[in-house]
Design brief:
Helix content is 50%, strand content 17%. It is built from eleven helices and eight strands. The longest helix is centred in the middle third of the chain and has 17 residues. Bound molecules: pyridoxine-5'-phosphate.
Length: 239
């Protein structure tokens, strides 16, 4: 069964716009779980532009909610994450000035560093995932450095679909990477830029077991409500 991870970072973005307490990401995590999210994703960015340390701590302490904490390889953030003890970790690249995570990790450059970080999380029984571009070499390196999962960056395919451009080559890459990762025993996830249409296209790839979706879910919720949007995504992913 495929799973839906709901990224609630932008609930915090909205809260931070006023510098007060509403809307509350902790309430959002509980609400999303009740509405059908299989897990909650939060990204503790180095600049703390949305989720803050206290949010992450409180959300990871919630009972019966699986939390996927996205972090960079920054040593202070890694230490914090080991302390917070989420259920899952997803290591992502991070640039201060980017609007959102622009691409996958550079595994060639950061192989040793990532290997050490993965080992530290795995020692604490925390499922560890790497956010990567759809590249066969990256799948091979992910296996070598013992990642439990890979999350394939779907931003490019999503953009091509939205622009009504040909996306078959990009989809093929994702398909091939998913197959190989699955063969290696690495669980495959997908995320970034996904909406109903792109999720429907990608959900045909049976090796993709988890979708992590944020911005579109929160945006659509303004018009249709969070419960309804989560239900719609579950219908697409699980049918
Ligand atoms: N997965 C990862 C690893 C991400 O970094 C992000 C963006 O924070 C997402 C999924 C969600 O992307 P979007 O907000 O575009 O759905």
């Amino acid at each position: 069964m495929k799973r839906l991870g709901v990224n609630i970072d932008h609930i915090a973005t909205l809260r931070n716009a006023r510098g007060e307490k509403h809307p509350d990401p902790i309430f959002a995590a509980k609400f999303a779980k009740k509405a059908g999210a299989n897990s909650i994703t939060i990204h503790l960015r180095e600049d703390r532009r949305h989720i803050k340390d206290l949010d992450a701590k409180k959300i990871c302490k919630l009972k019966n909610i699986l939390v996927n904490l996205e972090i960079s390889t920054n040593s202070e953030i890694v230490r914090k994450a080991l302390n917070i003890k989420p259920d899952f970790i997803c290591i992502v690249p991070e640039k201060r000035k980017e609007i959102t995570t622009e691409g996958g990790l550079n595994l060639i450059k950061n192989k040793k560093k990532l290997q050490k970080i993965i080992a530290r999380f795995k020692k604490q029984n925390i499922r560890t995932s790497l956010f990567i571009n759809p590249s066969i070499l990256d799948i091979k390196i992910s296996k070598e450095i013992k990642a439990d999962c890979v999350e394939i960056h779907t931003g490019r395919v999503a953009n091509l679909v939205k622009l009504n451009k040909s996306y078959s080559n990009e989809l093929k890459k994702i398909f091939k990477c998913s197959k190989l990762a699955n063969k290696f025993g690495i669980e495959v996830h997908a995320g970034h830029g996904l909406d109903y249409k792109t999720t429907k296209i990608l959900s045909k790839i049976k090796e993709i077991k988890e979708f992590n979706i944020g911005h579109y879910i929160i945006g659509e919720s303004i018009f249709f409500g969070l419960s309804k949007v989560i239900k719609n995504f579950n219908k697409i992913i699980k049918s």
